[in-house]
UniProtKB/TrEMBL annotation:
Residues 1-31 are annotated as: Disordered. Keywords: Aminotransferase, Pyridoxal phosphate, Transferase. One of its GO terms (molecular function) is alanine-glyoxylate transaminase activity. Residues 42-342 form the Aminotransferase class V domain. InterPro entries: Aminotrans_V_dom, PyrdxlP-dep_Trfase, PyrdxlP-dep_Trfase_major, PyrdxlP-dep_Trfase_small, SP_NH2Trfase/AEP_transaminase. Belongs to the class-V pyridoxal-phosphate-dependent aminotransferase family. This is Alanine-glyoxylate aminotransferase apoenzyme. Its cofactor is pyridoxal 5'-phosphate. One of its GO terms (biological process) is glycine biosynthetic process, by transamination of glyoxylate. CDD domains: AGAT_like (cd06451). The keyword Signal does not apply. It comes from the Archaea.
Length: 400
């Protein structure tokens, strides 16, 4: 029924439930970040906001482990930072090499094509990382201008372990390297400068535990040189980094109205990272996710990724025989207000994806998720060892 001007719209009175978020993101937000979001607005060029922008840039450099001047939060979600990276680096006529080993390589390919680039692929099965010799062969065969890879593949729970090798071979072939660090920034070891990554982008709602809306991006001088010497402007006006430079660079001139509240939130989330210390934070993720891993293995389930490329921030666990993954996820949500997720693409129905990110990566949460998963799987008839999971989790936490 169309509403007329005088009718009250018929909307629900639902208050969103309070969930424990242990899925692929968003993660739970630290209360300090939520409080920062209730800070009154100032103008996006207010002197106090300019100071906050400086803080965010400095804290992002710390978190990315980089001195890159060109380090900013892009207005929008992780995909906006991704499109800013690809849409500015790939010019019409350029070739971009992308991986086939997960969901987000495909997204890189779509964005590169829309930027006017030609896409070529480097293959690895879903659930496995890229091998250096395979990447080297692809670089040799296709001579791409840009090589993109996913450091932490959220769709498969795989960590790309050989990043310095990949950047070295790419640079030998004169390709600039874009790293998707959406699920690694602030949770898993990542060293942009030391590993010679040209461009990295991320999302705030994963290991930074910040609501989505302002997404980290960093570019080396070499990458920025390419962006500033393009023959044609990028196809997106909004994400054109040469224009954004006016706002985030020295000039501080209006480009678009920054999402002020999201920038407040990101600053607070990054201050929490700096207070904890980036390396301690990586250690915490490994320790807490290690206890989760011990728990799921203790109850008789198997991790999907071998130890060498296990991704602590996103744990891919094989679904036991005869069990419907979506029924498990729905029951956990209903019975426990607990979010985990099933698999995507080639791994749909095969894995559970259990996040262990940022503020969600805490001992009480992993004890909870292991206990709840054990209960739900047992009640659905899975072959699990009740109680053994939580014992293994507790022991793992106690030994650290
Ligand atoms: C690896 C990876 N890249 C890119 C994205 C896109 O980020 P967003 O959904 O915030 O746009 C995601 C989101 O889950 C991701 O996991």
């Amino acid at each position: 029924m169309p509403t007329t001007d005088n009718e009250t719209p018929d909307v629900s009175e639902l208050t969103p439930p309070s969930r424990t978020l242990m899925g692929p993101g968003p993660s739970n937000t630290n209360p300090r970040v939520l409080r920062a979001m209730s800070t009154p607005l100032v103008g996006h060029l207010d002197p106090s906001f300019v100071e906050i922008m400086n803080d965010v840039q400095e804290l992002l450099r710390y978190t990315f482990r980089t001195d890159n001047e060109w380090t900013i939060p892009v207005s929008g979600t992780g995909s906006a930072a991704m499109e800013a990276a690809i849409g500015n680096l790939v010019e019409p006529g350029d070739t971009m090499l992308v991986p086939t080993n997960g969901y987000f390589g495909d997204r890189m390919a779509s964005m590169a094509r829309r930027a006017g680039g030609t896409v070529v692929e480097v293959d690895a099965p879903w659930g496995e990382p890229l091998e250096t010799p395979t990447v080297e062969d692809a670089l040799e065969t296709h001579d791409p201008d840009v090589f993109g890879f996913v450091h932490a593949e959220t769709s498969t729970g795989v960590l790309q372990p050989n990043v310095p090798e990949l950047t070295a071979v790419a640079h030998e072939h004169d390709a600039l390297v874009i790293a998707d660090t959406v699920t690694s920034l602030g949770g898993v070891e990542l060293r942009v400068d030391e590993w010679d990554i040209d461009v990295a982008y991320a999302g705030p709602q994963k290991c930074l535990s910040c609501p989505p809306g302002a997404s980290p991006l960093t570019l080396s001088d070499e990458a920025m040189e390419k962006v500033l010497s393009r023959e044609q402007a990028p196809r997106s006006w909004y994400l054109d980094l040469s224009l954004l430079e006016g706002y985030w660079g020295d000039e501080r001139a209006y480009h678009h109205t920054a999402p002020i509240t999201n920038v407040y939130a990101l600053r607070e989330a990054l201050r929490l990272v700096a207070e904890e210390g980036i390396e301690s934070r990586w250690d915490r993720h490994e320790r807490i996710a290690g206890a989760l891993k011990a728990g799921v293995e203790g109850m008789g389930l198997e991790m999907n990724a071998p130890e060498e490329y296990w991704l602590p921030s996103l744990n891919a666990v094989q679904v036991p025989d005869g069990i419907d993954d979506s029924e498990v996820c729905e029951t956990l949500l209903e019975r426990y207000d607990l979010e985990i997720a099933g698999g995507l693409g080639d791994l749909s129905g095969e894995i559970f994806r259990i996040g262990c990110m940022g503020h969600s990566a805490r001992a009480e949460n992993v004890i909870f998720v292991v206990t709840a998963l054990d209960d739900v799987l047992e009640s659905l008839g899975a072959d699990v060892d009740p109680g053994k999971g939580v014992t293994a989790t507790r022991r793992s936490l106690a030994t650290e």
